[in-house]
Specification:
Deoxyribonuclease I, Chain A, 7-stranded mixed sheet, 6-stranded mixed sheet, 16% helix, 34% strand
Length: 238
C-alpha cells in the first residue's frame, strides 16, 4: 500500500533517511506464537526504527529491544516504565533503534490510564539535527472508560507536536483526529494499519515537520503482529 511524494527526484547532496514504526505486539504472532522479529525488522530497511510493546510476552526482564538492536547494528534508546503492568510481568517499553549517529535527549511525559508513568523517548540525529520522538498512546482505549484522560493526552500531544520534527508510533487514534492534533506536523502515511489480518483503520502514524519532504511511504504486509508496520523515506529540505 505505497504512497509517494510527487517529487521523485531528490536534490543531489541533500540528506535523506528512512524511518519505520511498528507495534510488535510483544513478539506474538496472531496465532499466539512468537514471530521472527529480527527478520521482519530487517525487511523494513530503516535507519531509525521505533518499536512499541517492545518486550517478550510472559518475560519479566525482556531482551527484545536489545536483540533487535544488535541484529540491526544500531544504538538502542528506549523508555521503560518503572513498574510492571497489570496484565503482563514485563515493563511497558517504547524503543528507538538508530543506525545513524544520534544522541538521547529528554523524554517527554504523557498522561496515561491507571496512573502509570508513560513517556515518549526522544533522540536527535547528529548529522541531520532532527528530533524524533517514539510514541505509544492510549488513545481510543481511554475514550469510553476515561474520557478525561483521553482529552488530557490529546492536549499533551498537541504540545509535543510543536517540539519535535518527527513523532512516530502507535497513537491508537484515527487519522482525522491525529492530523488535527498534530499540527504543525503532517502525516507521512496514508493507509489502514489495524487489525493486521484485515486492516480497516489507521492508528499507526509517522508525523513530520515542514523541515522534511516525504520521498515515499509504505504500509507493510502482515508480519505477525496485530499492527502493520509503517515506514517513510524523508529528506531534509534545502
Amino acid at each position: 500500500m505505497p504512497s509517494a511524494d510527487p517529487d521523485e527526484n531528490p536534490t543531489p547532496g541533500v540528506e535523506q533517511f528512512r524511518i519505520a514504526s511498528w507495534n510488535v505486539h510483544m513478539g506474538l504472532h496472531n496465532d499466539g506464537g512468537r514471530n521472527d522479529l529480527v527478520t521482519e525488522c530487517k525487511r523494513l530497511e530503516a535507519d531509525v526504527l521505533i518499536l512499541q510493546e517492545a518486550w517478550w510476552y510472559g518475560e519479566d526482564n525482556s531482551d527484545l529491544a536489545e536483540t533487535v538492536a544488535a541484529a540491526l547494528g544500531g544504538d538502542l534508546h528506549r523508555y521503560t516504565s518503572p513498574t510492571p503492568m497489570r496484565r503482563y510481568p514485563a515493563q511497558w517499553t517504547v524503543a528507538i533503534i538508530s543506525t545513524l549517529p544520534a544522541r538521547r535527549i529528554d523524554d517527554v511525559e504523557i498522561p496515561s490510564m491507571f496512573g502509570r508513568e508513560r513517556r515518549m523517548p526522544r533522540i536527535q540525529l547528529t548529522q541531520h539535527d532532527v528530533v524524533i520522538a517514539g510514541a505509544h498512546l492510549d488513545g481510543i482505549h481511554a475514550v469510553r472508560t476515561r474520557p478525561d484522560l483521553w482529552l488530557k493526552q490529546r492536549r499533551a500531544f498537541r504540545k509535543h507536536a510543536s517540539e519535535n520534527d518527527i513523532i512516530a508510533g502507535d497513537l491508537n487514534m484515527w487519522s482525522p483526529i491525529v492530523n488535527r492534533d498534530a499540527r504543525p506536523l503532517r502525516n507521512a502515511i496514508t493507509g489502514a494499519t489495524w487489525p493486521a489480518q484485515r486492516p480497516h483503520s489507521q492508528i499507526d502514524h509517522i508525523l513530520v515537520s515542514d523541515r522534511l519532504d516525504v520521498i515515499d511511504s509504505n504500509v507493510a504486509d502482515n508480519c505477525g503482529s496485530d499492527h502493520l508496520a509503517v515506514s517513510a523515506t524523508l529528506r531534509l529540505r534545502s
